Amino acid sequence: MSSINRKILVVYLLALVAGIALSALTYLRGESVLHAGKALTEQSLPRFDTISHLRNAIFSHKPILYEYYASADRATFLTRYASAREETLLGLRALRNMSQALPELARLETGIESIHTQSQRLDQTMSAAPVDWDRAREILTEVSKAEARIKPELEALVQINRQQVIHYGQETRGNTMNMMQMVLGFTVAGLIMALFIAYYVNAYLRETAHRRLLAIFPERSPNPMLRLSQQGAVLFANEATHHLIGLLGLTDVEEILPLDLELHLMQINAAGQQRLTWEYSIGERTLDCTVHLLPDLHVCHLYLADITERKQAELRLVRQALQDAVTGLPNRRLFRERLEIVLNHKQAHCAVALIRPDRIKLVLESQGYAASDNLIGAMAERLRAALTEHPENAPAVDLFRFEGATFGLLITQLADTSELESLMRRLQAAMLEPLKVEEREFFFTLSIGIAVSPDHGADVETLFKNAEAAVNRIRAEGGNGYRFYTQDLSERTEQWLAMEQGLRRALERNELLLHYQPQVNLKSGEMIGTEALIRWQNPERGLVSPMQFIPLAEETGLIVPIGAWVLRTACLQAKTWLDLGNDLVMAVNISARQFQHPGFIDLVEEILAETGLPARNLELEITESVAMHDVERTTATLHALRQVGILLSIDDFGTGFSSLAYLRRFPLSKLKIDQSFVRNLSVNEYDATIAHTVILLGHSLQLTVIAEGVETKEQLDVLRRLGCEEMQGYYFSRPVPAADLSALLKEGRRLAA
Questions:
Q1: Predicted local distance difference test score (pLDDT) of residue 346
Q2: In contact, 351 and 420? CB cutoff 8 Å
C-alpha cells in the first residue's frame, strides 16, 4: 500500500472514528435537547397558561361583586359568581398538581379563600332588608385589599415559571451549540483541503444573506421597524423607530417594546407560528405591533404603527351613534338597547316616559339653529338637574333625548306608581322658572306620557306606542300635565286621527262657523262688544266643541289657516254691524302658533284693509301663557299691533305665571278674569280674593277689567261690588249665530240686570 493510500486509510479511519464519536455525542446532546424541550412544552408553558387563566378567574370576582352592588340582582350574581368560583378552584387544583409545595401557592390559596369569605359576606349584606350600603362598600374595600395581597403571589409564581423557562431554554441552546461545534469541527477536519474554496463560498453566502436582510428590512422605511433576536434583544432599529421614540417622549429603544413581548415570542415558538399581531398602549398612544419570525435567519422583525387617531375616530363614531350631539344625552338608539336589556332581565317593574314641552315647536321655528340648540340644551340641563335631586331609595331614572324637543325617561327599580307621580310633579315644578337663553326668557310647560311594564306592555314597541298615546292625549287636553296609559287611549288615538282628517277638509267644505257672545258694560247695561267663538259643523259628528278640535289644530299647525279665517270672518261681520250703526268691539282669540307666526302682523293689517273695519273696533285676545312664552318677542309684537290702533287684552288672566314687571311692559287695554275664578265667586272666598286682586291690579295699570263665565245674579253682584266694569257669560247670553245677535241689536235690548 502506498504512502498516499496509507495516509488516505489513516485519514479515513480517523474520520470514521471521529464520525462514530461525533454521532454518539450528537445523540446524547439530542437527548438533552429533547428533554429540555419536553420540559418546556409539557410543564413550563402549560403552567404559564394555567397561571394566566387562574389570574383572570381570580380578578373576575371583583367586577362581579361591584355589579351586584350596583344592580342588586342576586340571581345574576349567584350564577356568575359560581362560574368564577369554579374556574378559580379548577385553576388552583391544576396549578397544585403541576407545582411543588411552594409557599407562594399556599399564600395564594389563603387570599382566594379571603375573597370567597368577603363575597359571602357581601351576599348576606345585599340580601338583607334593608340593605346596609355602608357595610357593602366596606366589604368591597376588603375585596380590593385581598386582590392586592394576591397579586404579588401570582407575580412570584409567574417569575418562578419564567426562570424555569429560561433555564430550559438556555440548556437547549447550550446543547444545540455544542452539537453545532462538534459538527463544524468534523466538517473542518474533513474539508481541510477545500479551505480556500469554503472561505470564498462562505463570503458569498454572507453577502447574499446581508442583501436579503436589506431587501426585507429597508432602513429608510417610513414605518417603524426593528430587528430582534429570537430572545427579544434589539439588533437594529430604523430611523422611523427613533422618530416615534422621540414623539412618545422615550429615551431608549427598549422602552418602546411591548411589555408582553417575551410572552408573545414564546407563544410563537411554541405554536410554530411565523406571524402575530396585537395592540398595546404607551402613555396616551396606541400602537399596533406585528412580529414576523424568520427562523432560517434566527431573527424576528417587529413592525410598529401608531393607530391612536384611528382608535379615537372609532370611539367618536361610536359616541355619535349612541349620543345626542346637542345635549350630550344618550339618544333613542341607546334608549331602545337599554330598555331591551331591562325587559330581557324580566325586571318586575320599569316605566317609559315621553316628555314634550308644550308649544316649543313654535319657539324653535322662530329661532335660528344655534339658538334652538341652546334652548334644547338648557332644557336638558334643567331636566337633568331635577332628576339628580331625588330622595333616597327613589327609582333609578335615566334621561335621553330623542328627535326634536322630545325627551325620554327610563325608570327602573320601581316599587309603585306613586313614585312616578312624585317624579312627574318634580319635573313639572322644575319648569316653573323661565329658561334664560342668550339674554331671553322662555316659559314652558311639560306634557308627559307614561307606560309601565308589564301592565302596559312587555316589549319595546308596545311601551313606546302606549307612552306616545298617553302624551298625545295630555297635549290634546291642553298640555301641562302627565298621564298614564289606559286602554281607551288607543281608541282615542284612532278617533284623533279621524278627526284630524276631517278638520283638514273643514275649511274647503265651509264647515266652520262663528258664534258671538255679547260683552256688557255694567254701568250702562249696553252691549259694548262681542267675542267671536269658532264652531265646527261636521256632517258625521254634528256640532264639534272647540275644546275637541282646537288642541288638534294647534298640534297639526292647522290653527294658522283656521285662525286667519276666523279673523277675516269676524272683522267682516263687525264691519257689517258697524255699517248698521252698531259700534261694537270685536274680540278675537289668537292662538300661540298664530301669534308667533312671522307674518301675523301683516295678516292683521291686510284683513283690516280688506274688510274696512277700523282698528279701534278690533280686539285681539292672547292668553297669559302665550304672552309669557317669549317676553321680548311678545312685547315687540304687541307694540306693533298697538301702533296700528288695535285693542289688546290678556285672556284667562290669573291661570298662568305672569309678573307685574312684565305686565307693565305690554301695551294692553284690558284684562279678562278667567271663568274658573268666577264659577264659585259667591261661595268661595279664595276665588273672590283672586278676582278682587286682578281687578285692583288692572285698575292700577289703568286697564279695563272684564269677567267671563258670569252665569248667576249672585256672581254679577259680587263682581259689581268688587269694581269690575265689563262682563260676559250665560247670564246675559249664550254664544249665538250672527243672525241672532243682529236681531238682538235691532231690538236694542239692555242685557244687564
A1: 63
A2: yes
